[in-house]
Amino acid sequence: MLPDESFSSFQGDRDKKPELIHQQQLLVTPEGEATSFSPPDPVRQPPGQATLAVDPPSQPDLVGEKVTRSDGRDAATVKPAAPSEAFQRQRPGPTEVTATARPRTLEICAGSGGLSLALWKQGFDATGVDWQGNRHATKIPLLMRDLTDPAQQKEVEQKRDESDFVHLAPPCGTASEARGIKLTEEDKAMGCPEPKPLRSKACPWGLPKLSTYHQMKVDKANMIYLFCVSTIIWCCTQSPPVPFTLENPSRSLLWLLPPMQEVIVKFGLVLLHTHMCMHGSKRKKESGILTNRPDIFARLVLRCDGQHEHAKWGPMQDPVTGKWIFATGEECEYPDAFCDRIATCIADHYRTAPRRAPVHRTKRTKPQQNRLRIRAQVGHQSKRLTTMCFVPDRKPPRRVTWQADQPQNVPHGKVTAPLTVGPARLDKGDMVRETGFEQNGDGTGVTMHAVIEEIRNPTEFIHESLELEMPWRGQPCIPDRTLKVIVETLQKGSQAMKDKWSKSFIREAFRIKQLRKEEEKAREHLHPSVRKVTDGKETVAMKELLENLGYPDAGIADEIREGFPIVGKFEHCPVYDMKPSEEQNEGADPEWLDLKAEEVREDLEALHKRTKDDEITEEVWRITCGPDNPKSETALGWAEGPMTRDEVSKRVGGHLWSPAHGFGVKQDEKTRQIDDFSRSFTNACTSTPDKVSLDGVDEILAVAKTWIELMDQATKNAGTFWARWQNGEVTEHRMHPEFKDKKNQRLKGTCVDLESAYRQLAVREDQKKYSVIGLPRGGKTLYYVCNALPFGASADVLSFNRAARALNFCIHTVAGSVVTNFFDDFVCIAPAGVADSMYARARMMLTELGWKLKKKSIISPDYEFMLGSEDIIL
User: Hey, which residues does 866 pair with through a beta bridge?
Assistant: First the structure.
């Protein structure tokens, strides 16, 4: 809270117009009078760096003599502090820079944590704070705190009280003047939402009569702004003052809040203005950096030199998701260069020694083009598909040129009334993309040019449409192993297929029994906790089967037995496609989890201290270790606990372990336990090069449509049908007479569901320190070590689906059943005459390899499968 002050004097009347100090820098003179000066005018200032020339670092005072800029104009009254005085503290804090006592920094509203990463590299003990809903991909572990909660503000204040430098970057969304910029008519026509102003210079606390939603956003932002003010006051009232920086756009209405104006005047703070394009940003954005130590951060003041291109402002539509993105939102995350320069400034002040930081996480992207292509093949075409089959509204752009006596002003954008552009006559709806001119060499005038797009007329639309190949016509693209079983079944008939695959399955079941002793021998070295989780799995027989059939990921059988990693860099799995280079991301080094282990534990225990017990937390505890629950996770060996900190350290072999937050989600009448490995940064320490493809509803439809398409071809062509394989080859086949009967062409299906699927696979023993979870109970944290794969670790998605894909392959090649699988759900679709036998063989294949099935899935496929334009119905 404010020392010797009250927030009441700051809040004032929301409708009262404050005294404007926008884009001014204020200082307190030696006589105690407030003075101000304007920052360099971006228009008048010559290109290059606008530096503050300061006196040598022998003067300890922050105020004193006049300082001039390099261009000779008066700039400010500033003198730097001696770097050594920062360690002469009258409060707890580091006294010297050593390996065990490093200066501490705090980044509030850290976003991606880029500045904390840069500070860490410069030798600081850096901590970043943001809230759980942070949309940025964090580069290093952050503390999760909601600064609109007074209790959590106090927890951040405890960290602040130990800090030697504080950086604040409060969200500027509600205070942005960009909200007042009107959209173009073209953007409105394309469906772009127009943001509404939430504040004004006259009403910096928020406009009156806002909607409930917008009022909530403004109120929450105001709480964060006031917390920033209290932090500034704390920094300025320490002895000596703690350096701080607060960054926001130069035109942000945050600077007009009365409490912000008061602290600027009272403590003589300086607002430095810089163009972010000079620090690595794509756009020319002017940011203001408020600080009590301009002598430290003067090097950040840079003006655009005009030697680089700027990206455009305004709204953009994501080509994959279809969502509208505003350029201002893209500029929220600091460029790496800006973070490095702030860190360098404060590192020079404290004279810290740089150090190597572990690899940090890079930003992730989530394209969905493969999914959209599959959907298009079953009749659901999305406008987001970049290679979609459709006729654009306008013709391809074309360039037109013409002669003119002098440059002409041709309006850009969508044409709203008939317009002549040189030789082209444009109608309403056409587009002018760009224009320009070149001076003629003979001095007779100029050559104008423009790029235009014209609307197609109805005849042109029809002509183009007839040339398109519709993706939903013909046979969908499905895996060759699935198509092979379908074609063979249609060729040979139900009885021949039943005889063939029954013999195949009996041979494999006999071989599994022969290899039981080898399986036991392979398990001798396993830790008891791993052995208990994977008990019954026939991994030796599974590996032999996969190798004999040429499956490219046969090593998955060993990992099913030995356990899977939770973090680290995963190798490419050949059964999946690698992500394109633009989609690949580098996970952080797991060393971050060791470096931040204590901080992560404190963060989790603080969260659980605030958590009140309720029906869901009680049910999660009962599922995990309830004494009256014989099927609890601890009773089944899936987890060990509850444990204290020391007991966990003893179990995992050291104190460098980072726990995940365990919580529950109500699904119908069932509570599902979730382990939040994102909060603990564990998921960020996973690098997977593969794009895991799952068989969802669209893939089920594709299989069903393939059955229908091939039988329909044979019916119309006297029993002949053609199959198209993934390599583009087309083969001709004859359908068995039994499928001529319409009754035998009706599809039936069912789902074979694994029981507690993730819990049937183990965590590798050397990775147990990454599988610790904490549950809240009575305001305390109960720790558990997960022996089975937890539900919430991103690495487990790849690990489990590798196992499921191998099982899918075994079901196709040994049992001759057509199935798709979405995680643990194996959906079997087949014509009525063969559906029962296919289902039975798929179920027996899974149980023979040691996998447990849910009882509700052990039923015959009595449900008729109907393929409709919108849904599938079982």
Answer: 873
Q: How many other C-beta atoms lie within 10 A of the C-beta of residue 764?
A: 17
- Note the pLDDT of residue 60: 29
How far is 54 from 42, CA to CA, in rounded Å?
A: 22
Res 440: pLDDT: 86
The Cα–Cα gap between 45 and 278 comes to 15
Q: Which is nearest to 391 in space by CA: 322, 320, 467? A: 467
AA letter at 600: V
In 3D, which of 735, 724, 748, 747 has the Cα closest to residue 478?
A: 724
Alpha helices, DSSP H, located in 433-479: 458-466
Dist CA 173 CA 326 (whole Å): 11
Q: Report strand pairing: 286-291 vs 270-275.
A: antiparallel
Is it the case that residue 364 has pLDDT exceeding 80?
Answer: no
390 pLDDT tier (thresholds 50, 70, 90): low
Which residue would you say has higher pLDDT here, 33 or 781? 781
Place of tokens 């979405």: 822
Read off the pLDDT of each residue in 729-741 and give the average, rounded to a whole number: 89
DSSP label of 170? -
Residue 161: is its pLDDT beyond 60?
yes
Distance CA 519, CA 635 (A): 25
SS3 content of the chain, % helix, strand, coil (to 5): 35, 20, 45
Nearest to 91 by CA among 267, 226, 234: 234
**Do 303 and 151 form a contact (C-beta atoms < 8 A)?**
no
pLDDT tens-digit readout, 53-94: 223 223 223 332 333 333 333 333 333 333 333 323 233 333
* Among 329, 302, 298, 297, CA closest to 313: 329
Reported as a pLDDT band with limits 50, 70 and 90, residue 384 is very low
DSSP for residue 566? S
d(CA 172, CA 253): 8
Give the whole-angstrom CA distance, residue 321 versus residue 437. Answer: 37
| CA–CA dist 86, 292 (Å, integer) | 14
Query: In a 10 Å sphere around its CB, with 0-12 CB exposed, 13-18 middle and 19+ buried, how is residue 565 labelled?
Result: buried
Q: Which of 526, 564, 567, 767 is nearest to 654 (CA)?
A: 767
Residue 463 has pLDDT above 50, yes or no: yes
Dihedral sign computed on CA atoms, order 501, 814, 493, 872: positive
**Rounded to an integer, what distance in angstroms lies between the CA atom of residue 452 and that of residue 583?**
33
- d(C-alpha 339, C-alpha 344), whole Å: 9
DSSP code for 46? P
278 contact partners, CB below 8 Å, separation of at least 6: 302, 303, 304, 305
What residues pair up with 684 in beta bridges, in sequence order? none
Contacts with 453 (C-beta within 8 Å, 6 or more apart), sequence order: 394, 395, 396, 397, 398, 430, 431, 433
List of residues 6+ apart from 248 with CB closer than 8 A: 169, 170, 172, 175, 254, 255, 287, 288, 290
309-354 per-position pLDDT tens digit: 888 887 777 665 567 777 777 777 888 899 999 999 999 999 988 8
Asked if 299 contacts 348 with a C-beta cutoff of 8 angstroms, the reply is no
Long-range contacts formed by 849-852: CB under 8 A, 24+ apart: 849/512, 849/537, 849/538, 849/541, 849/542, 849/807, 849/810, 850/536, 850/537, 850/538, 851/537, 851/754, 851/760, 851/807, 852/536, 852/754, 852/755, 852/756, 852/760
Angstrom distances, CA of residue 632 to CA of 394, 438, 781: 62, 79, 18
Phi/psi of residue 770, nearest 5 degrees = -95, -5
Q: What's the first-to-final CA gap in the chain, in angstroms?
A: 61
Strand partners, 68: 74
Collect all residues with Cβ–Cβ distance below 8 Å to 797 and sequence separation of at least 6: 692
Closest CA to 564 of 692, 655, 686: 686
Could you say which DSSP state residue 617 is in? H
Q: Which two tokens stand for residue 842?
A: 């798929």
Tokens of 445: 């005038």
- H or E stretch at 369: helix 369-377
DSSP secondary structure code for residue 664 in this structure:
E
